[in-house]
Design goal:
By secondary structure, the protein is α+β, with helices and mostly antiparallel strands. Helices cover about 50% and strands about 10% of the residues.
Amino acid sequence: MDVCGKAPTSETGEYFRNNVWWWCPLWDYCAELAPDLTEGISGHYNDGDGLDAAGAHQLAAMLTAEIETGRTSEFAEKYTADLAALPDEPCWLCNGAGTRTDELAVAQGWTQRGGCISCQGTGKVRPDATSYPFSAENVAEFRDFVAASGGFEIW
């Protein structure tokens, strides 16, 4: 997601970017922290929605408090541990068989070579949720942007 400051007070407030994998947990964290500020904002879409200057100022203050008390780091540690504890799932590409037998694999001769490019022949893959990382450092970078953004739009 490309997040653009509406009236930046410094270069830091001009632009913030996270790919969708990093952005979704970051926005979810903000929404959990500040539901009154984020309610009704389509934060998971790049449609230009966002916060005005007053809302951005409030969000930056809330994020600062969370970072300074260590709650953001605690959240990040628990989030990461929870993802690590998720069990593997059957591979979506080979249906857990470890070898592809779909039409494309047969046509390309991949079934004779064995294996599956998704699970490397194990039949198991990590759950999709593990593709969405979260870190206190990312929150701090976003907080710095928000504080200097003069409001922002999510594109």
